[in-house]
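Title: Prediction job returns without error message
Component: structure pipeline
Severity: low
Priority: P3
Assignee: unassigned

Description:
Job completed but the reporter wants confirmation the result is attached to the right record. Sequence as submitted:
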Amino acid sequence: MPIYIPDEWVINQENKENIYEILAKYYHTDLMYEGNQDNADKAKKELTEIGETIIIEKLEDGTIIVN
């Protein structure tokens, strides 16, 4: 999943690879299907655990669009 995350959105630059891994793990398709919301919740939980709340905000406000 090609996606660009600006450095300004990453709270801890050491997490950048983790952010991409989390997004790829839970947003692995551009198709909508039953269970996508569960994946979104799981992604947000993992992002919260590593302290990357700006990425969560960008997902929620539609700046980052993934399914």
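Comment from assignee: result matches the submitted record. The chain has a mean pLDDT of 86.
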